[in-house]
Specification:
The complex is a heterotrimer of chains A (195), B (146) and C (129). Chain A is built from eight helices and no strands. Chain A has 195 residues and is mostly helical. The termini of chain A are far apart. Chain B is mainly α and 146 residues long. Chain B has one domain. The longest helix of chain B has 32 residues. Chain C is elongated. The chains are: A mainly alpha (195), B mainly alpha (146), C mainly alpha (129). Chains in contact: A-B, A-C, B-C. Chains A and C meet through α1, α2, α3, α4 and α6 of A and α1, α2 and α3 of C.
């Protein structure tokens, strides 16, 4: 294992991007102006997209940048416009218990990662069996260069159908809750759905 | 001088390349990073940009909410329809090999193309529909609260 | 705890720290929109954990190019995370719609105030308001 004989630039980029992510996450916890919180949330998504590119996950980076940096931010701003601009200071602070719970959960998870295989190991159980099998079968059976699309649409087609149904159901749910302005509201005092 | 003149001119210039890029990502999903989801999101963002700059009413005239409702369901039906076609032609549900009996690999290509098209249609319609729902709501907070 | 061990695991540890920051935001803050953003942070850090497991040393993106001896990263975690991202934005949209309706019904989106209004509605206002 020659980690220091060849200085891998990608490790340096890794560490810099992770530092940005940590700073953005802490800013989200601390800030109280909700507009800034949503903006930093968008920054967090975009920097994580760059992090995904560094880890060779180009499809995931594309989707995270478009969805997290684009749609999520627009929807959160739309929700902000309809609800409130600032987070109020709580009257009684009891943040010791959440902090304790987070620290205990985090330590348990970090203790569990001691058993995990090394980062970038080609023979780890995650990388050795099904993943390698898909890479070998795709040029023969499907002949599509983008293996992620081949797996998504063909080998795991049922999952993608369920995912499309989930997106449709979410749209349906939002329509039921908020309405899309299809019917003009008659002049009444009460608030009506779907108007 | 109309308000937001720079925004309006730049949006008019940028709108067609954004929609073109959405179609490019959709159809090149087999050869480069991309596919149905990314293309649907980019197309939805193009419509949202148009609605933000030119007003929600103009956007609703071009992409009416009725059409958006129909498109939301159409994508899922196309996906399931491809599965049923495989069933009728003798294979299992969502089996693409039987879509082209002479050449299974071509059948896979047909299947992937139609399936990604269904996904792209649903995702773009849902993004636009959700934006219409949020933007069409009456705002109760006054502007001085910012 | 050799340098090799740390280099092999630091990605996972920082992803877990980010997860806990998101979890703390969800648990401790009472503003509903802030909770939703914290949930978003939590989800994205879980994605980072998964994608880190799929990276192979010296590999490149899993798009097959003509040529011999190219190492590709594992495509399976990418597929799973793609689905997870889209499902995440779907749940966030429905959550925001519910928050808008809560605001219209209660007049506030702070959790402690909402619970107080519910308590008053159910048991009547107490004398030591």
């Amino acid at each position: 294992m020659t980690f220091f004989a060849e200085f891998d630039m990608s490790i340096f980029v890794d560490v810099v991007l992770l530092t940005f992510l940590l700073m953005a996450a802490f800013a989200i916890v601390v800030m109280r102006h909700l507009f800034s919180v949503v903006m930093v949330g968008g920054v967090y998504s975009l920097v994580s997209a760059a992090f995904f590119v560094n880890l060779d996950a180009v499809d995931v980076a594309f989707t995270e940048a478009a969805v997290g940096g684009g749609i999520s931010t627009v929807l959160l701003l739309g929700g902000l416009m309809l609800t409130s601009r600032r987070e109020k200071l709580p009257v009684t602070r009891r943040s010791v218990i959440p902090l304790l719970a987070a620290v205990v959960t985090g330590s348990a998870l970090i203790y569990a990662t001691f058993d995990m295989p090394d980062f970038e190991d080609p023979d780890s159980p995650a990388n050795a069996y099904v993943g390698r099998d898909y890479m070998e079968r795709t040029p023969r059976e499907i002949d599509v260069p983008n293996v992620v699309t081949a797996v998504l649409a063909s080998y795991r087609g049922f999952d993608t159908m369920g995912e499309t149904a989930v997106v449709f159901t979410a749209g349906l749910g939002v329509l039921v809750l908020l309405g899309m302005g299809l019917r003009v509201a008659p002049a009444t005092d009460k608030e009506e759905d779907g108007t | 001088m109309t308000p937001h003149l720079v925004l309006r001119v730049v949006t008019k210039i940028l709108l067609s390349p954004i929609i073109l890029f959405a179609f490019y990502v959709q159809f090149h999903g087999d050869f480069s990073p991309g596919g149905g989801f990314q293309a649907g999101v980019i197309f939805g963002v193009a419509v949202i940009l148009y609605a933000l700059v030119f007003g929600l009413d103009m956007a609703k005239k071009v992409f009416s909410p009725r059409i958006i409702q129909i498109l939301m369901a159409l994508g899922v039906m196309i996906y399931a329809g491809v599965g049923y076609v495989g069933l009728f032609m003798g294979g299992a549900f969502l089996d693409y090999n039987v879509l082209d009996p002479s050449n299974p690999v071509h059948g896979q290509h047909y299947g992937i193309m139609f399936v990604e098209m269904g996904v792209g249609i649903t995702v773009s319609a849902v993004m636009v529909g959700i934006f219409y729902a949020f933007a069409g709501r009456n705002v109760e907070i006054s502007d001085e609260d910012w | 705890m050799s340098a090799e061990f740390i280099l092999g695991h630091y990605n996972y540890w920082i992803a877990i720290v980010l997860m806990m920051v998101g979890l703390y935001t969800v648990m401790s803050r009472s503003n509903l929109v802030k909770k939703l953003v914290g949930l978003n942070v939590f989800q994205t850090s879980v994605f980072m954990l998964y994608i880190s497991m799929g990276k192979i040393k010296g590999g490149t993106a899993p798009i097959i190019t003509p040529g011999e001896g190219v190492i590709y990263s594992n495509p399976l975690p990418h597929v799973l995370i793609l689905t997870a991202i889209v499902v995440g934005v779907a749940t966030m949209a429905v959550g925001l719609a519910i928050i808008v309706r809560i605001r219209e019904a209660y007049g506030t989106i702070e959790e402690n105030e909402i619970l107080a209004i519910d308590h008053d509605l159910e048991f009547g206002k107490s004398t030591n308001a």
